[in-house]
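pasting for ref
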Amino acid sequence: MIAGLAVKSLRNRKFTAALTTLSIALSVLLLLGVERIRHESRESFTATISGTDLVVGARTSPVNLLLSAVFHIGNATNNIEWKSYRAIADRPDVAWTIPLSLGDSHRGYRVLGTTPAYFEHLRFARDRTLVLEQGRPFDGEQDAVLGADVAQSLKYRVGDSIVIAHGAGDVSFTLHDEHPFRVTGILARTGTPVDRTVHVTLAGLDAVHKEVESGEDPLAAIIGTRQRTDAPRAVTAFLVGLKSRGAALSAQRAVNEYEGEPLTAVLPGVALQEVWEITGAVEKSLFAVSALVVVVGLSGMLVSLLTSLGERRREMAVLRSLGARPVQIFSLILGEAASLTAMGIMLGAIALYAGLLAGRSWLESRLGLYVAVSWPSAAEWELVALVAAAGLLIGLIPAWRSYRYSLADGMIVRF
């Protein structure tokens, strides 16, 4: 009976109830949305470098090396000589290596020079490998394989010709138009920086730079043509896979103590932890803002219920005269608060999942963030439980006030 009365009472005040429910729903949407994006962003970052034991580059900070070599954010401090790369790649405890050469771009997208080992050994999302959606991997100096975002945004297809430019900016005045590349393949979407990268061979990238340098002097062009070899002069960084993960620390120490040139080897997991420490303050700030929004939404419900009590004192008196006990009046008001909170939570959760389904492709293409539309995590269930408990606690205030209204007080007409 009390539940039915609560529902009818809210239906009678449907406009106020709808606004209160909407405010709670929006606050829950923001709270759960921040938690989901925070969790998925961490998963996305971690999944980018699955299966790699070491990232090696020129002497710099671990965070800078990880961001520049793996996530293509910022620039490397220096290059690594090819002989140094070979010395480390030939170590007996090394199973495979992936050389990376950065520094050029194509219409705002990074150009990465590498080898076929990139498609063979690179892993993301734990065990997933790179898959070609169209075409084939690169083979010759003028072949290029595009990430999914590059092909989609620039409308490229297999067989198209592209020209890369020096530098990593959106606009460049140094185009390598004397050495165009031909698109031979387009990768399937991964939700990682691979989607926003143009992949070419190390030989092709090195040939572009040699042609630019030799073009300044005819004699240098002749000498450069005669002395060209298959090995590049330097690489920006390289990824290392070890035969045994237990040897990661010893291999890291050996690279850091390499006498040929100053190098830095980082463990991806450790470097990622440092990134989280840097961004932790931002995450906490976003979570605090969303929590405050929830408090504001529940406070609106409290104001709505307290305001309605003054108008419903005669209603409470009538219920008391019909035999309703004070505890039943208490339960009625508390049930209304619980109903508003529950409807707000349900509406907020539905809006969140609808928004994820509608905006998932936009998040992938624009931000490179893959947000899974999955069953709520344990942390999200805890947040929902906290919001529900807070709604019930706030509902105790107007419920207690209604409990204290006496029958005589309700029957007195106040002017």
